[in-house]
Write a structure and sequence with these properties.
The chain is α+β, with helices and mostly antiparallel strands. The protein is built from 4 helices and 5 strands. The protein has a 5-stranded antiparallel β-sheet with strand order 1-5-3-4-2. A hairpin with a 4-residue loop joins strand 3 and strand 4. The N terminus is likely disordered.
């Protein structure tokens, strides 16, 4: 219960940090990632990219930017414990909880960042 309250406070405060859309590219990426993040969800399936993951990625925004700049990347998942960024191509399925107990992952869809899947 405490974790849910903490996550709700985190999401509520981070999503309302900006009253206007930032004009700096790095700030814009962070702003969009706050709006589009799936907490503790993974995207199963999807077209294989080569490589399919990158190690030593220092942050979730860095992982998101990597995917955004990578041709064919449509979703990314970041594990802060291992500092691994997993990238997915077209065809991935809806986000689901990670299969391993105790695994914490942040995920993002590029269609949310570029606005192509928003209603």
């Amino acid at each position: 219960m405490m974790l849910k309250v903490l996550l709700l406070v985190l999401i509520t405060t981070t999503c309302s940090v900006y009253s206007v859309v930032p004009d700096d590219e790095n700030e814009m990426m962070i702003y969009l990632m706050r709006q589009c993040t799936h907490i503790n969800k993974v995207f199963p399936g999807g077209a294989a990219l080569s490589p399919s993951f990158y190690n030593n990625i220092q942050s979730f925004p860095e992982c998101g930017k990597l995917c955004f700049d990578l041709e064919g990347c449509r979703a990314a998942m970041y594990n802060p414990k291992t500092r691994r960024c997993v990238v997915k191509g077209e065809g991935y399925r809806s986000p689901v909880p990670p299969g391993r107990v105790g695994r914490y992952v942040l995920s993002i869809e590029m269609c949310c960042v570029d606005g192509s899947c928003l209603i």
